[in-house]
Write a structure and sequence with these properties.
- 75% of the residues lie in helices and 0% in strands.
- By secondary structure, the chain is mainly alpha-helical.
- The chain has one domain (10-71).
- The longest helix has 39 residues, at 33-71.
- The termini are far apart.
- The model has no long low-confidence stretch (mean pLDDT 85).
Length: 72
């Protein structure tokens, strides 16, 4: 990733995304359409990965919960 660094949560991703858009948005003096498009592409890729990781974690937790209920 070129623009996002050390993103481990959705909150971190959203915070960095807002900061990057403030800096690179085409309406700003030093902004760039290409940079904004690349930021958006990286954001979508990271968002998808973080959501998948979150959903996997929930499934694992639910499976462990089911196993605990079955064992009782």
């Amino acid at each position: 990733m070129k623009y996002f660094k050390d993103v481990n949560t959705l909150e971190e991703l959203r915070r960095q995304y807002k900061q990057l858009l403030k800096k690179y948005h085409p309406d700003n003096a030093n902004g760039s359409t290409k940079a904004t498009q690349k930021i958006n592409a990286e954001y979508e890729q990271l968002l998808k990965g973080l959501k998948n990781r979150h959903e996997t974690t929930i499934i694992i937790i639910e499976q462990k919960h089911i196993n605990i209920i079955v064992k009782k």
